[in-house]
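HUMAN: Please help interpret these tokens:
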Amino acid sequence: MSRRPAYALVALVGVSFVVRTALAWLRATPSLFPDEYIYSSIGRSLADSGHATIRGGPAHFPALLQPIVTAPAWLIGDVDTAFRAVQAIGAFAMSLAAVPVYVLAVRLGLSRRIALALAGLAVLIPDFLYASFITSEPFAYPLVLAAVTAGVIALAEPTRRAQLAFVGFAGLATLTRAQLVVVPVVFVVAAFAVGALERRVRPALREQLLPLAVMAVPVLGLIATGPTHVLGYYKPVLHMRIDPTAFVRWVGWDAMVLTYTAGWIVIPGALLGLWLCLRRPTTRMELTFGVMICLLALALLTEAGLLQANTAAQVALGPGEIKERYVFYLAPLAGVSFALYAKRGWPLRVPHLALAAALVLLSVRVPLSGFAVASTLSASPVLFAVYWLTGELGGAGNASGAVAAAAGLLSVVAVLASRRPRLGTRVVLGLALLACSAASAGAVALDVQSTSNLRKSALPSDPSWVDRLHLGRPVTLVESYSGLRTLSLQQLFWNRSITRVALLPGAARFDAFRVEAVRVQADGSLMLGSGPLNGPLLVDTYGSTVKLRGARIVATAPHSALWLPRGATAPRLSLYAPGRYSDGWLASRGLITIWPGRAGRPVSGWLTMHLTAPRWLGGVNLTFRTSGGERTVVNIQAGGSAKLRVPVCSARSARVTYRSSRTTFLGLRPVSAKATKPVFTPSRSACR
């Protein structure tokens, strides 16, 4: 590598690092849960104790490279500062992806200027958004590209140096992200395929004896320990049930989104470039590149499709979303393939025209805005950009039209560029860089906006508010009915003093890691295992109203309250109302439970609430029933209000249920009317 291109490459990596770090620091809070919580928790535990744990229990998480590399950053006491340090590490690691792309392009015989342009494409794709996330992608991306580069060279020129480089990069990639176990598998199959194409299978495999033998060692270890133990958190994939039709459909959609990720305009030439590498390679390096990329694309798209079409492992892996996150590694490689096609002088103009026309038709018939739904965006930065564009242009139809028009224009330019190959190559690569930059800008804009809104709605002004109180004791997060995973994981991420999670009756676990179920005694005592739940309690109040005895509220957040016990007495439940949300809405049905002040004492008093029905909601009837069988019906007119006063009389804990005559949905919440916090006033008169 001559000095001038080397300096240019170093400058490209440096600029990418600085720009991506600055953009990452605009991100207000993590939002990709549970992933960002998992990686940060393991990193913290490695920094604190040297063990990979989450909330004191074993993590059973195979992708440990990211936590290991970022663990030193978590030695910083302030969570926000540590978070920014981890983002900077990720931005630097991901920017290094430019290096293997440049090396691969040069080894394939492309000019250094074209190689620099391709390296630029590698750092401009919209999936570079993950550089600001606490996930494995910032490390997996450069490692996969480095493994591919080393693998292509090792297959074409079997030297010990290239082979060991591939083994090292592929091993690190697998340690970074479990799905990348396909990379060494691709190499093995590629060695056989190259030998078959050259009609020398045995010599080809004999040349790769060193990497094959080294890679066989972890396979034997996997067989010895069992796949269930190795997969840990990901073991649900062993019980997948696949819908073949859904699999084919999802693979097609993932491939479609990948064309946008790579800049769209290079895709027709990239496909033809791969075809020519396989059918009429000018060098052995081109042949091994074509084989390696085709097999890698097949493996990654198959993995993504299997996860999307799976009906058994949905809880752990999340269904129903484009898995661009699983396949974006192919985007810069598509650019390299296009450059190989252009290097030949754009020979297949008619097929190029046909492919470009097919892509234009695809962009019109299958608009991306149909996939850009808020609940399924997290695995596709391209859809981040489309969703942002939808908001800017005032509707999904306008966004679809804009994307289709841009795709059509790029395809027309690609066809025209084939008439003047030398100029056309530069124009197409320049427009690909421009398209990727635009998509990246939209993805970053949406992420900055959405994380800012999330932080404002989920956290107080100081997100580490629990830690700042310096309570001196570990805090327990008490999850109540209808709590939101994102809200709870936000608290756990920003406050390291929260060390365990307890679930009240009716609460659902929000991740696969250590939680403890609370048992409520007759006097409201909260029991965990054989002892009472004591110490500071951060009580989730998003979907329930919770009141405690023997404790006081010392601080609050938008959807939670921090209770501190009075003296040595453990807190006890006084009132628990699942279904009354923190913004005052009542669910369409619910329960209010009241516990006595002392064990064995009766509950006697009045339950009161002020109920309202917004005018747009219309009138509603609410029926309340006590555990004694008494029935109270409250009619609320549209825009009106009513006061509920129900007598509660029970020899032990009392229950009051309610049901609405109609249900309205606010987002995904079924609600009926608005209500103030339920208040129980003890009075003997209620039992007369």
